[in-house]
């Protein structure tokens, strides 16, 4: 019985604490409403507290700055709409929904219906006194454009070529007989050229005595055939 009697107060305490937390949350929710109501009373001249009036003065300054910024945004948006209206090409109405469709577009961007292709207008001819090539104004009487150098005079059509009747070639005239020159005298055959003298080969060096090998280069070991040679013919080393 005692345990049951002690459990009831504890349960009631927990319920009351949970209720207090809920009330605190509801109280926090009401502070913004209280601030707005106080600021509205300040705007209507019903607020008398000096501290609250000072805080409300700061809020009103922020409102004034926000209003000026919004006015600038509205003005810029109006300017942007005017620029778009001036630069946008003139479109044609869609046959299904009536929305404006830019030239060259085959399908409406609003409803997706196909738009009939527009007939291409021929390019206007350049006005008088302008260059036919680049359209730059040209002084009357000028023969060439001062901008691109194109000629201002229209090329004259080619004159018809006169037809020339083909004439038969004149008959060949009899040419006078010219004397035939006598044949040149026969030249005597040239004497046969004498054969060139062939130089005799130099005498071979004397052979080394039998049983004795020829001397060799002390540097490269090449045999020396010439007895009085001072240098080796293979490596150029001095022999004596």
Please, could you describe this protein's structure?
With 240 residues, the protein is mainly α. Among the domains are: 2-92, no CATH class; 216-240, no CATH class. Helix content is 33%, strand content 2%. It contains 2 helices and 2 strands. Strands 1-2 form a two-stranded antiparallel ribbon. The model has no long low-confidence stretch (mean pLDDT 74).
The overall strand count is 2
The total count of helices amounts to: 2
Strand content: under 5%
Give the topology string: H per helix, E per strand. HHEE
Average pLDDT rating: 74
Instruction: Report strand order across the widest sheet.
Output: 1-2
As a whole number of angstroms, the C-alpha radius of gyration is 62 Å
Secondary-structure map with pairings?
Elements: H1 2-43, H2 50-87, E1 92-93, E2 100-101
Antiparallel strand pairs: 1-2
Helix pairs in contact: 1-2
Keywords:
33% helix, 240 residues, two-stranded antiparallel sheet, mainly alpha, 2% strand, single chain
Offer a concise description of the structure.
The protein has 2 helices and 2 strands, in the order H-H-E-E. The chain has helices spanning 2-43, 50-87; strands at residues 92-93, 100-101.
């Amino acid at each position: 019985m005692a345990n049951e009697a002690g459990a009831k107060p504890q349960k009631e305490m927990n319920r009351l604490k949970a209720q207090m937390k809920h009330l605190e949350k509801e109280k926090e929710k009401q502070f913004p409403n209280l601030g707005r109501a106080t600021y509205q009373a300040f705007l209507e001249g019903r607020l008398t507290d000096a501290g609250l009036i000072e805080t409300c003065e700061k809020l009103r300054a922020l409102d004034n700055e926000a209003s000026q910024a919004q006015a600038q945004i509205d003005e810029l948006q109006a300017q942007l709409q005017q620029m778009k209206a001036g630069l946008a090409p003139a479109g044609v109405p869609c046959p299904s929904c009536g929305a404006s469709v830019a030239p060259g577009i085959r399908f409406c961007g609003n409803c997706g219906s196909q738009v009939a292709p527009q007939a291409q207008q021929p390019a206007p001819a350049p006005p008088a006194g302008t260059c036919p090539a680049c359209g730059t104004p040209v002084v009357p009487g000028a023969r060439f454009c001062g901008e691109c150098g194109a000629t201002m005079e229209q090329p004259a059509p080619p004159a018809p070529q006169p037809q020339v009747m083909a004439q038969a070639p004149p008959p060949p005239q009899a040419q006078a007989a010219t004397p035939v020159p006598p044949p040149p005298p026969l030249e005597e055959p040239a004497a046969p050229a004498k054969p060139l003298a062939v130089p005799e080969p130099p005498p071979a060096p004397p052979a080394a005595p039998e049983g004795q090998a020829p001397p060799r280069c002390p540097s490269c070991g090449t045999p020396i055939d010439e007895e009085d040679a001072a240098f080796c013919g293979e490596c150029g080393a001095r022999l004596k």
